[in-house]
Amino acid sequence: MKSTVYTLFLETKLDLLSALRTPSFAVPALAFPVLLYLFFGIFMVQDRPQDSVEISTYTMVNYMVFGLMAPSLFNFGAHIAQERESGWLELKLISPMPATYYLFAKCLSAVTFTLSISMLLFLFAGSLGNVKLELFQWVLLLLLAVVGTVPFCLLGLILGLKYSAKAASAITNLVFLPMAMLSGLWLPIFLMPTFMQQFAWVLPSYHLSQLGLASVGLGQGYSALFHLFALFLMSTIFLFTAVALYKKRGVS
Amino acid sequence: MDWAVNLEQVRFSYANKAAIRGITSQLRSGCIYSIIGENGAGKTTLIKLLLGRLSPASGQISVLGHEPGATEVKNDVGAMLQVGALPNNVRVIEFIKLFQSYYNAPMSWQGALQLAELERQKLTFFGELSGGEKQRLLFCLALIGNPKLVFLDEPTLGMDVHMRRRLWARIVQLKQKGTTVILTTHNLHEVESVADEVLILRAGEVVAQGTPSQLKENLQRSELRFLSDYEEEKIRALLPSFTVHKEGNQVYIATDDVPQVISLLHQHNVVMKELSVSPLSLTQTFMDITRGELP
Fold first, then answer.
1. In this structure, are B173 and B66 located in the same domain?
2. Which candidate, A30, A63, A45, places its Cα nearest to that of A128?
3. Is there a smaller number of Cβ atoms within 10 Å at the N or the C end of chain A?
4. Within its chain, how far is the Cα of A33 from the centroid?
5. Which UniProt keyword terms apply here (chain A) (predicted)?
6. How far apart are CA A168 and CA B257, in angstroms?
7. In the prediction, which pLDDT does B223 show?
8. pLDDT digits over A144-203, tens only?
9. Using CA atoms, how far apart are residues A215 and A120, in angstroms rounded to an integer?
């Protein structure tokens, strides 16, 4: 191969271009979290001067997690299923390019979406929501967003390898929306019925949002290390499941 | 002898269904091979085994002296598979530059565009290409790494007559450069003129391998052709021990006893117009070899 970096760059560029040229994917992925944040995190709290900044900060973190979930889950879940079925993945697998490049490029593409969404949210939060954080807190949030993309990419990979193109798209939606809701990304978790609150323990989005909230001083009780460990454990389970499916599908 | 591919007693099964049943064959470097067989005969499975996408249950496969799919081999192998679709919103030039980056010594992107005759469509999205143009792009992606061995699965599918001729000419040029070509196609007339050897697969076994003329000579049969309104099934019923095939009004019968066939048809008042007898075509040879009950 010519150069690993050049091939990875082209793979990522093509994956990103393909995603951006699909408005039905790119527009909701980029616009939804930002619009929802503007509505619930800024305009709806303008008449509550006593805690508007705190709410804006809280919702910014939660919509950041919500925003990174969609590109990661869908770019891996639905898109890999489509590319596997159409034969596009097969063509790449018989070429000298290692299969890991394909996955790594998809991950980089999802991270690019994550960074774009996070930066947009930070921009609105800082300007319209008066959210004021230390520089290290902004950087920490951004780092969390990048690292937090990984478990969702792995979960998406499991769906993309396990299901057909049509099924993967529907199932990804079935995973994405309830996961966001049950993690308290739309509505604070303590406002939900007690039995619904229990689901959050097994959701990576909950632990990621709690880590984000802890990093801006809005943690809800459990230590950051506990959430970090939970996220690591889930990512490891996803990784092993994905590798097993990967071998079963002959993607090597 | 320099072998591009060596298969020894290769077997493969999907669940409990045997797809490849003990194939042993050698394919020389720098030749054009055509694998032909009915649907489900095992052609695609065999190609997947040669590409390393499937592993044989037993037996040995060597491709360019290595295990199929090994890193050392991938740089020297190209493949044009029957792909449903590439991403519709990616441009021709983007595919070419991406695939170019996969190989150690690829052809230039200008050369690749020229090979595919897609210079004018270089900025066109895949979804906007015609069926033939899509095939040409896949053909060019298979050859972009200057492979020593190339697999072409139904390369002329969706192409017009002129484009098909130019593509077959390109395939012959590949052979002249020393590239080994392994192709599958249903167009046996075209194979006859370009293939050095034909492998006929039937129910996962190679039932015949040889040059097109060897295969025809071995059968020592002739093809009887005539125009008739008589139904194919009725002719078959009259001639149960011969291979009968009808396209439109044209009837083709493979036989080693032309007078007997004519006499039989005559006895049953089958009107035969424009009757002619010629050596067996590859199509008829193929049908003759693969007829009968499957094991």
1. yes
2. A45
3. C
4. 11
5. Cell membrane, Membrane, Transmembrane, Transmembrane helix, Transport
6. 60
7. 80
8. 999 999 999 999 999 999 999 889 989 999 999 999 999 999 888 888 888 888 999 999
9. 19
Test B101 with A90 for CB contact under 8 angstroms: no
Task: Tell me which residues of chain A have a pLDDT lower than 50.
Answer: 252
Which residues in chain B are contacts of A83 at CB distance < 8 A?
87
**Binary contact (A1, B101; C-beta < 8 A):** yes
The alpha carbon of residue A65 is apart from the nearest alpha carbon of chain B, in Å, by 28
Whole-number Cα distances in Å, B61 to A90, A245, B4, B12: 20, 26, 11, 12
Distance of alpha carbon A38 from alpha carbon A32, whole angstroms: 10
Residue A218's SS3 state is: coil
Look up residue A57 and give its two tokens. 């900060």
Displacement of CA B212 from its chain's centroid (Å): 13
Contacts of B84 in chain A (CB under 8 A): 85-87
Kindly state the tokens that stand for A53: 């900044």
Query: Is residue B261 a part of any domain in this protein?
Result: yes
Contacts of A81 in chain B (CB under 8 A): none
Q: Are B206 and B77 in the same domain? A: yes
B284 within a domain of the structure (yes/no): no
Separation between Cα atoms, residue A192 and residue A186, nearest integer Å: 11
CA triple A160-A163-A165, angle to 5 deg = 75
Task: Give CA separation, A79 vs A7, A72, A167, in Å.
Answer: 20, 10, 12
Residue A165 contacts B where some CB pair is shorter than 8 Å: no
Instruction: Provide the residue range defining the domain that includes B207.
Output: 3-216
What pLDDT score was predicted for residue B292? Answer: 53
Those residues whose C-beta lies under 8 Å from the C-beta of residue A49, and which sit 6 or more positions away, are none
DSSP H or E stretch at residue B79:
strand B77-80
- Pick B45 or B289 by higher pLDDT: B45
Look at residues B216, B250, B268 and tell me which one is the last residue of a structural domain. B216
For A28, the domain range is 2-248
Q: b/e for B270-292, b at 16 or more Cβ within 10 A? A: bebeeeeeeebbbbbbbbbbbee
Task: Give the integer Cα–Cα distance in Å for B74 and A96.
Answer: 5
Overall number of domains in chain B:
2
Q: Number of structural domains, chain A?
A: 1
| Residue B228 and residue B88 share a domain | no
Q: Are residues B69 and B102 in the same domain?
A: yes
Residue B293 has pLDDT above 60, yes or no: no
